[in-house]
Amino acid sequence: PGFMLARPGSDLEFIVDNIKTSMEYDIVIRYEPKIAGDWRQVEVTIERPSPVDPNGPCANARPQDDYKPVALSSDARYIAIAPTCLEAGKTYKIKLMFKPDPPQPSSPTASILVDSIVLLPSLENIPFFVGSPIADNRKKEYLHYQCGSAFFTVIKGPISDICKKYHYSIGYYVYGGAFSCSCDPTGSLSSLCDPMGGRCQCKPNVVGRRCDRCAPGTYGFGPEGCKACDCNSVGALDNFCSVSSGQCKCQAQTYGRACDQCQPGSWNYPKCQRCQCNGHADTCDSATGACDSCRDFTVGHNCDRCIEGYYGDPSLAGDIPCRPCPCPGTLESGHSYADHCELDPQSRDVVCECDEGYAGSRCDVCADNYYGNPEEVGGSCNLCNCSNNMDISRPGNCDPHSGKCLQCLFNTEGFNCERCKDNYFGDAINQLCTECVCDILGTNNSAGSCDGITGQCPCLPNVIGISCDACEKNHWKIASGMGCEACDCDPNGSKSDQCNLYDGQCDCKSGFGGRQCNQCQTNHWGDPNVECKPCECNPEGSATLQCNRDNGSCICHQGIGGYNCDVCARGYLGSAPHCSPCGECFDNWDAILNNLSEETDKVIQAAREIKRTGATGAYTQEFDRMEKELKDVKQLLQNTTKSTIDLGHIDTYIDKLRVGLKESHDSLINGVGKELENATQRIYLSNLALAELRIRVNELKETASALKANATHLQESNVEGALNLTREAADHSRQIVAKGSVTQNETGNAERQCKRTEILVGRNSAQFTQGQQDNSRAVDKLDQDLTQLERNIPELNNQVCHKMGDPCDQLCGGAGCGFCGGISCEDGAYTKSSKAFSFATDAENKIYEKEAKAEELFRGISQAKQETSSAKDVASEALLAASNAQNRSETSVQQSSDLIKRLEGFLNTEGATALEIQNLASQAQQKNIQLKPEQITELAKNINTTIASLTDINTILADTAEDLQLAQESKDEADRAKAKAENVLTTAQTFLDTLVEAEEIQEKIKTAVDSANSNIEQAKIDLTQITSETGEAQQKANETVTEVNQLQEQVKTLQTGFLKNGKDAQEVKAEAESMTEEVKQAEDRAREMQSQYNLAVNTLRDHSDDSVLAQTRAQKLLEKASQLSLNTTDKLKQLKDAETQYREQKNELTSLTDAIKKLNERMGVYLIDINKKSVTYRNCLN
User: Fold this and answer.
1) Range 1-125 classified under CATH 2.60.120.260
2) How many degrees, rounded to 5, is the angle at CA 1180 between CA 1175 and CA 1182?
3) Domain formed by 325-383, architecture
4) Which ranges carry the Laminin IV type B domain (predicted)?
């Protein structure tokens, strides 16, 4: 799984617990040197769990064989150590100790990377390699191909078939046969293993043949492999951690999983020091010392400031607690307008820092250019909104209470200066108001001022332009002050539709005249399209040389008459131009004739009314057919089960189409309709003119007959009167002839117009007839679609509401009934969806409750775990103290034993006994020497003098030689006795000192043993309590697991119900989509029918008011159809919303299931950890 870094003075420990066959194994160390030079002092120690079996294969193993010093060469990557006999079924510890003698002692980074160790069976212990010549040949072949070197390195090269054959045989012998891979599914990548050795393919940081445990230095065995311990190199004792929790072995004063933190309440790792939080926090940041979770409304690195909205001095020196800012009320009261306040160091009073727009010592008034009611609870100050049309440097720009702007600038006005003043226009927001420029001739002053945005002046009729200074196209006479009039230029006689803007004169073609170019040229009369004749007006009797443009009659002066104004007028006598009135008799006669003429006009008008009201007779057949169709539609509406709301929605949609189609239709047939209407009116006028002409002709005939009779009578009675009557009759006849000419001209125009109308009608009759036929077919199609839709509604009711309901079922309702589904309608999609939603809501609430309980239990388990960890730490400390005391006791005992042995050795040594030494000392003291030291010295000098004066020295020396030798021997014996005595005295003193020291050591040992016994008893009590708490925690964990299992069962049941509901919802959705498709088709057909129907309705509406009734009925039909479509769409939307809600609930359940699954996994890990620790603590107690 990777290398392990080894430094000088460190050691690595390998656990070997998979020995299958007792035999000798070669130990191979795989490593990777990091620096040049050999690592000369590496000790390999094998720790056996028990003595070697004297009757087993390893009976000859010696203790010294378990210690093997080696040197790791920098030129190699592995080293093979002499064989060591290991017994099957036992667990061994193989330690590698790296002595502090690296190849480069001066380098602080001296280290080496160790990958792993390998145990290779010794060939001498393999039966088929020893004992026969064939076995020797096999061994030679095995060594020849260097088969054993395949396992020396981690990366294996290609292995020959010969080596594989031997490896399989060796494996079969060592493991006693072939075995299944049994790869751990959690730690292995697959269930397959290497045929040679059976090693499985492990996940990252997972080791073992079966990939069933974490590698050293990793933890958290799980589906993702194992994670590195990453123990802090400063705070941890080593880089090994707990396999289950990942907890590293921490140094004193360190804390955390990786031993990378200080204890709670301390910081500045690794030089930990207490947090300075002024009593407002218990912990601080481990790196910066910043206090965590400051209490009492404090904040800051040392909890030495009040939070926003509070004031005070929370430091230990000030000791003024933080209080809410009164600005004017507190934030909690909702009546505060300052986020920050401070305590004045001099006055010790609070100083509010008001929000923008507030002022005053307590922020209880609005600042300048702000308005509001801050003195009231819930009030506020708002910025005066004058659209930037005020001078903020001036006070009083707006009312302080209402906010109304009082000093608007830049020609603006309004509550917020948001618009330009009257007679100004533009962008008031951007200070761009400009004075309006309105033309006095074209402006309607009574309509107010110009538009404040665009500057558009209110124009008179047919006047255009932003300043109302021009007539519309084809209009003139703006100077009238009443608006512009239409030019009405004749399209045949004028060159264009635009006339002169000042006199209205159209630009006439050659041969045409008049203002509108619809007459003959000046001083001519007649039809310009046929012939123009010159006027023959008498210059003296005519008011103007321009005669009547229709009949050529001249306009005469008063009293002048005649066609050419060359005779006296009716009622005048004389010779033109000198004419005088006839008198009172003629005036009376003329009044009678005028009365008769007025009565005749009334009769003619009545005839016109009859003619007008009878015009609809030509369309009687079409109206009858329409009435029949409308009756059928009415009957269909009465029989339908669709609600008015349903049809109303459809009608709303069709109304929109009708508006668009009407505009298109109007634009297409507007010209045709106008032409048809004009032609019809002209035909009516021509008919009336013809009728009047016939009446006048009859009257003329009757008048002529009467005049003839009267003429004869007058001739006989009064020749002058008869002459006058005859002249008057002649004038009247000429007038009638002139009127007849005018009537003939109008008749000719009417005939020409009729011809043009007939051509136009003939051109559009086919389209009109086709439109009527299309309308009829569209109405029939709409009837069929509505009938088909009505047939489908019961089936849809059955699927959604569980009853066929036609139209409504009493229990389950249906479409348009106001309700759907119920208690007895469980098979309906609506009821199923409602129940599913209710069940999902209840399940969600239960899941939340269970999750809260699980979270509470989890917190309990976490607390128990924390307490267990604390107890474990206490027990570890107690165990460490007991171990130290035991070590000290053993050391003292060992020292005492050594001292006793030394004393025994000294006492048992051969030599003078104490009694002999005592006797010798007594004899020496009994010697009586009377001389003083000075006398002895003087005596010695004398002796020397005497000796010097002697002449025969040799003789004397020879005579005294024996005495001298005896004296010398006595002296030597005395010296030896003195030395022995001194030695005995020194030894005795040393013995006494030793006894005193041994007594002190025994007192210390007794004290340490008593302390150790006390610690052990306390540890036993703590471990007993831990065991009890662990049992309770395990019981709680078991209860949690039981509840989680029950919750999983409920989740499974809920999932089953949701799947069933989902299936039902999908079926309902399919039916709804089918129905929606049919409704869309019906809507498309209805739109097509509506388009055709609108064409017919608009055409008939132009000719008869009766079509309004048909339109109203069709409108109601379309409203009902629109309502039905809208209801159907709403139902479909509800079904889609239900489906969306179902999916969201399904996703939420999936998420909850995953969360519960993860919680189970975490609970399982915690239970395993608790069980392991429980077993460990029990073993410690035992």
Assistant:
1) yes
2) 95
3) Ribbon (2.10)
4) 1-175
